[in-house]
């Protein structure tokens, strides 16, 4: 059995969605500030709080690349957003606004789920190859791809290319690049299994 440490296959698509998700949460917080402000007796602390957190969520995607520990900063931001949504639910319930409270509850649960999922995706994953096939990581489990489903598998430098018989190609970034001898050994193993 051979193992290679890879960047999770869903990482690139998730990184592209990060700014959108943080921005939408920020806009939701700004709408909360407007809703609280329009009450007959507005709670000025919460108006300012939701305004500041809204603008912070919108600005976070522009500054998140500057963090040395990007994934940890994203996870903390996502959990704070979820916590603010869930606690905001209590405020709107106590002020007899059940629709807004329900919406914040659902968004808070969604944010917690997305934060957990992103945390898992940003962790290094392993691809396992043995005589039965290639075991690929997915969001919740592993997917075994049999050798009979593949045309070709090639490892070059830090990129593993898997060519499926259904004309689908999957390229995975290898985090720990194997040496020349190990790479040749793996490519020989792949060719022996595919042919």
Task: Tell me what you see in this structure.
- The radius of gyration is 23 Å and the shape is elongated.
- Helix 1 packs antiparallel against helix 2 (44-63) and helix 3 (70-94) packs antiparallel against helix 4 (98-121).
- The strands form two sheets. It has a four-stranded antiparallel sheet, with no helix packed on it. The protein has a three-stranded antiparallel sheet with strand order 5-6-7.
- The chain is 57% helix and 19% strand.
- The model has no long low-confidence stretch (mean pLDDT 83).
- It has five helices and seven strands.
- By secondary structure, it is an alpha+beta fold.
- Strand 6 (159-164) and strand 7 (169-173) form a beta hairpin.
**Biggest beta sheet attributes:** 4 strands, antiparallel
Tally of DSSP helical segments: 5
| SSE string, helices as H and strands as E | EHHHHEEEEEEH
The CA-CA distance between the termini, in Å, is 18 Å
Question: What is the residue-mean pLDDT, rounded to a whole number?
Answer: 83
């Amino acid at each position: 059995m051979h193992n290679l440490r890879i960047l999770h296959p869903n990482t690139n698509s998730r990184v592209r969605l990060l700014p959108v998700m943080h921005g939408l949460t920020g806009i939701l917080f700004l709408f909360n500030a407007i809703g609280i402000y329009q009450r007959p007796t507005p709670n000025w602390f919460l108006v300012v709080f939701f305004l500041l957190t809204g603008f912070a969520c919108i600005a976070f995607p522009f500054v998140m690349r500057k963090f040395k520990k990007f994934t940890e900063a994203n996870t903390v931001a996502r959990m704070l957003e979820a916590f603010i949504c869930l606690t905001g639910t209590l405020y709107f319930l106590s002020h007899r606004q059940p629709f807004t409270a329900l919406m914040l509850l659902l968004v808070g649960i969604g944010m917690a789920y997305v934060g957990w999922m992103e945390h898992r995706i940003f962790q290094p994953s392993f691809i396992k190859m043995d005589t039965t096939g290639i075991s690929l990581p997915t969001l919740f489990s592993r997917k075994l791809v049999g050798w009979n489903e593949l045309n070709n598998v090639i490892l070059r430098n830090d990129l593993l290319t898997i060519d499926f018989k259904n004309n689908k190609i999957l390229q995975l970034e290898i985090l720990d690049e194997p040496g020349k001898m190990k790479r040749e050994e793996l490519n020989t193993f792949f060719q022996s299994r595919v042919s």
